[in-house]
Every structure is written in structure tokens, then in C-alpha cells.
Amino acid sequence: MQFEHIPHPATTSDTDREAILANPGFGTHFTDHMVTIEYTDGQGWHDAKVEPRAPIMLDPAAAVLHYAQEIFEGLKAYRHEDGSIALFRPEENARRLNASADRLAMPHVPEELFVEAIRQLIAVDGKWVPGAEGSSLYLRPFMIATEAFLGVRPAKRYKFMVIAGPAGNYFKSGAPAVSIWISSYTRAAPGGTGAAKCGGNYAASLVPTREAFARGHDQVLFLDAVEHKWVEELGGMNLFFVFDDGRVITPPLTGTILPGITRASLIQLLREEGLNVSEEPYSIDQWRTDAQSGHLLETMACGTAAVVTPVGKVAGEDGEFTIGSGGPGQLTSKIREKLVGIQRGTIADTHGWVMPIG
Which CATH class is domain 178-344? Predict the structure, then answer.
């Protein structure tokens, strides 16, 4: 597919851009351009453009506004020491986007088109990829239903877009480990959209997340919807539990939690470290017991935005408990360094995960 390039009338100055890159934060600054590609039922994908970032024109009856047909992804571009730019497992993001599309009755975006859209954006906004340690260019591909109609059926018109912004650390507190609050709310139920990366899942998490923040915690923990007993995931991250006998547990993918790409990568890296990694249910009561006995050494949370982050404290209505010393554990630190090293090109990529892009 050919991409039309529409010139930007006034890109960000070098001085302003460098000031932003020096302290980008997360999710508050954006590059100058965006990619848009249209989809029409019976025609497929068409009218691919790289154009100045601007508001989207939508009809008030657009299906996304009324029936929430919307999905998205998140991945990062990294500046390597030689100045080149690379992505981490973007084809997995494309596959997950299409899995989400299946659940929300939306069209697939071909994997090669997904990656090419990102490549086209970085080709014009490559100067926005920071090089400082811990920084990256966060990429947000997403799809929305744009057909104007009122009626409960899948839309016939969609827009796929990619926007991007420089990113620093996800957590702002600077604490050595995060503190999480056990929510009484449910994020997803069996048969629902828990495994899809759609906005509705995150909207449902906002009230419990606000509650966690108000109590002084960094993240919210969701338990299962049926028994309210089994650990599932945080507001936007998967969990791993590290024990003193060399075992590591992560909750299984049963359709109610997001199949994280960082999660899948960690499973492989941990097994290469000689650890016995299993995907099995783990209850909140057992978590408390294992932490208090010392059998549980570490808990790590993982996701694209936060990479690998230690969990130091867990709190709920019936009290709280600390994991290990309450700070980063040895394995969490080691596996984070290895994953980040692969992403940034300082450690050899023996898995074919890194894709040079510019």
C-alpha cells in the first residue's frame, strides 16, 4: 500500500523538542505526525496517509461513540547506541490487535501493514526517539469504528491510526517498588472482553484505580469475577511470583486477562535462567501466606509501559503485607536489565525479537 505524505506546516522546533526529550514524562507529549488508514466494508484498507497530527473529524453518530468499537496497542521504539532505531516484537502487537479485533467484530489489520504504518511514522518523526537511559518512543496504534449510524451491529467503516510520543518512566513516585490496592471491583468476567485490548476494559478500571490512588497506592489489583479469590492482573500489567525453591508462577491466560507481550517474553527469559515457570492460578490468601512466611521472595509486575517493576506492598480492606524487604528483588532487577538490554541493543538478541526500523 502506498502512503501519501502530507507536509507539516510547522513542526516542533529543535529547541522545543530537545527540551521535551530531556524530561518527557509519559503520555503527555506527542510527535508532529500521525498515520491514518481508512477501511470500508467491501473495499478493505485504503487511503493510507502520514499527515500532521491533528484532531479527528467524526460524525456525532460514529459507532465508536455509541457502541465502543475501539481497540488499541502499545509498543516502543528504542534508540540504540549506534543511533539506529528498533522495535521490540511488533509483529506480536499486530497479532494481538487482530485478536482484539475478532472479539469486537472489527476487521483485521494485516501484520505487514501494521508494521509499515509504524515504519512510516518513525521515518518522519525519528528525531523524537530519545536516547537517554530509561526512555523510548511510545507508539499507540488504534482502530475506531467511524460509520455514522445508530443500531446495534458491527460498523462498516473504520479508521486505523498510529500516534507516538516520547516516554520516560511510567511510575512517577520514584519509589523502589510499587504498592498495590486489592480492588473489590471486577475488571473482566469469563466470556467477556478481558483478553482484548479495548478501551472499555480500561474505563471499567478507572474507579478502582482512582480509589487506589486516593489511598496512596500506585496500582490496583483485580481478582477473578466468580470467586473473587484468584489473582488476575493489575490495572495495566501482568504479575509474576518468585519463590525460594526456584519456582515462578504467573496467572494463566483463561480469557479474562490480557496476554501481555512482555509477559510472554519474561516467561522465556526466566526459563532460560533455569527457573521452573508455570502458568497456574494463585489465590490472594496464598499470596499473603507465602509473603509472610518468606516462601515468596519477589513479585514483579510487567507491561510495555512499565517494563518490569517490583511490587513491594499489597493492601486491602483486611490489612496489608510486604513482599521480601519491600524493595526490588535480585531476580526482578536481573531480568529487567536483561530485557531492557535486548530492547536497547546492549545485549545480544538471540530470539529475533528486535526489528531494526531506522
Answer: alpha beta
Are 141 and 161 a contacting pair, CB within 8 Å? yes
Angle, CA 331 vertex, CA 328 and CA 337 arms, to 5° = 85
Q: Considering Cα of 315, then 316, then 317, then 319, what sign does the dihedral take?
A: negative
From CA 131, how far away is CA 339, in angstroms rounded?
Answer: 17
Q: What is the pTM of this model?
A: 0.95
| DSSP element (H, E) containing 96 | helix 90-103
Asked if 27 and 165 touch (Cβ cutoff 8 Å), the reply is yes
| Parallel/antiparallel/unpaired status of strands 44-52 and 3-5 | parallel
Nearest Cα residue to 143 out of 226, 73, 35, 71: 71
- Per domain, the residue ranges of the chain are 3-167, 178-344
Distance CA 340, CA 328 (A): 16
User: For residue range 83-108, what is the model confidence (pLDDT) as tens digits?
Assistant: 999 999 999 999 999 999 999 999 99
What is the Cα–Cα distance from 64 to 319, expressed in whole angstroms? 41
- State whether CATH 3.20.20.60 applies to domain 3-167: no
